Amino acid sequence: MTSSNEYGSHSWELMVIVDHQHEEVQKEFFLQVTGDLHIGGLMLKLVEKIEIPQDWSDYAFWWEQKKRWLLKTHWTLDKCGVQADAKLLFTTQHKMLRLRLPNMKTVRLKVSFSSVVFRAVSDICKILNIRRSEELSLMKQSEGTLKKKKKKDKNSKEPATEDILNLCNSPVSSGLSGNPGLYSKTMTPTYDPISGTPASSTITWFSDSPLTEQNCSILAFSHPNCSPETLAEMYQPRTLADKAKLNAGWLDSSRSLMEQGILEDDQLLLRFKYYTFFDLNPKYDAVRINQIYEQARWAILLEEIDCTEEEMLIFAALQAYQISKLSLSSEAQDFTCESEADEVEAALSNLEVTLEGGNSSNILEDITDIPKLADNLRLVRPKKLSLKAIKPYWFVFKDTSISYFKNQESAQGEPIEKINLKGSEVVPDVNVAAKKFGIKLLIPVADGMNEVYLRCENENQYAQWMAACILASKGKTMADSSYHPEVHKILSFLKMKNWTMSPQTVSDPESTDMKPECFISPRYTKKYKSKQLVARILEAHQNVSQMTLVEAKLRFIQAWQSLPEFGLSYYIVRFKGSKKDDVLGVSYNRLIRIDIATGDPITTWRFSNMKQWNVNWEIRQVAIEFDQNVSIAFTCLSADCKIIHEYIGGYIFLSTRSKDQNETLDEDLFHKLTGGQE
After folding, report:
1. 3-state secondary structure of 20
2. What CATH number labels 372-478?
3. Any idea which architecture 11-92 has in CATH?
4. Position 262 confidence tier, pLDDT thresholds 50, 70, 90
5. What is the CATH number assigned to the segment(s) 569-674?
6. pTM for the model
7. Which of 97, 188, 279, 393 lies in disulfide reach of 404, CB 3.0 to 4.6 Å?
8. Domain spans, the chain
9. pLDDT-derived band of residue 475, with 50, 70 and 90 as boundaries?
């Protein structure tokens, strides 16, 4: 027994387990402490007792029972709430983690297990040379998305060592903040905007980093597709409820990995969580563009997002011939070769393919002149128990509203109907081969959504009216600087869909070494024979054969963004007062209530009309108030309600970004908008 005079009457014994690699040294230590001892003093006391000469700077105390780190070294044990029954683990803050990237490659690197996930993802993106880290996050693979045969192999080893890209020697991932690695503003590596290879002037940055030329190739280039057998083994959602399972595993951005039960060398998925790809620039974003492309490609192949047969063939053509073949040839190139294009040509190429959409030089025009559209269109109103009524009318589009009249002469009088498109859903209804150019409008009304279809005569008319409808649904007019780029984007997508068979230019399908199952989702591979699919992919290829590698990827991303379901993350919810489950779709600018049985949208709520949102943590209910005294409340059944709360706050946070921010983020604002605790 130790006398009380020696330690004082208020001292007590605290058990600390030290996580070190020295087998001959004990790991459990008992320290005599008092409640007014601060955490820094406890560290000093412990290190003196361990007597192992090593760098302890990355070590901190982890309180297992409370699932939290004790990182504030000036706080006392009393202030932290640590008492004699506590067991503390003295362990490293940076640990190894395996990350599955959107291109299905696995990287192994050191990550901070004590920083909140938002900051940890930022550090990971610095290592991988991905700008705009706020668009990404980490997720666990949901149990529901693992197939039965995978469960049997649960205890088997994960991918072999040669399949894992080891980046554990990164200066960023070692917790050394002194060296910014690749991410310094003055040392950002640039890429050739045509081929996507690192520019020779900045190749030296790769030699000082774990992201060597070879590793950069793995991250920045698309690689040969997986086999049809591998694709068949992967989880493919069949229903909206299945799609909701895909979004259940997102980690809480306001808590650390350790606090969420993640252990050293666990595997997580790194994915683009928010579908607002800001300032996408081929000169700096070769890795980012490729990873976005890969996430889009897998979403289409695994049918996580629906597309038409025509669109699927375009996606297949862009994959099969542009990206796979050009990637293979790019890898064979010498990275250090000098680019023949000078800086001016590179800048022009960059401007052509950057996905910014419009420039701000038309501000005066935007203010002084609000253009309008006027033309003959056909109106289709679906009627129950009868055929659709299709009638021609004279339509006028002005501001954010469509008015239609019996004919052009009566346009000076009162319209038959005026439809305000603000807050509506705009869905393309197009089949280029059949010369069908339709626009489906879902107009919000008190008890749900009214369906209206507009039929256009040709591509140009469709592109103009579709672009106007898309902007109007967001509350913007055709005077907005994004109108003309939107028209151009729609026309270029239609052009890709509009192919004709040319016997002189199309190869013989039988002589072509291509497995269409690698490029087309199972729904369509079951519908056609392999030779038929090869022939149709070759047809579609005629319209994309002149593109560069980067342009092909950007076109693929643009086409993905044009799909009606793009950017929707689904959750199964129960609305307050409802007796049945619904699906809630969360997008970058709105929430959509969807019928779980039919998939039809019931109501749309725009973020721009939202006044406030909060969570009742006791009953796990999200409550949102909108303008005009509209309020909704729901509980989430397929995931934690914090995930939806963070999605809404995250999208609002991302809408505050601007180019003059110098890429610095207000992390406090992010946590304020997404945390839910304040």
Report:
1. coil
2. 2.30.29.30
3. Roll (3.10)
4. very high
5. 2.30.29.30
6. 0.81
7. 393
8. 11-92, 372-478, 569-674
9. confident
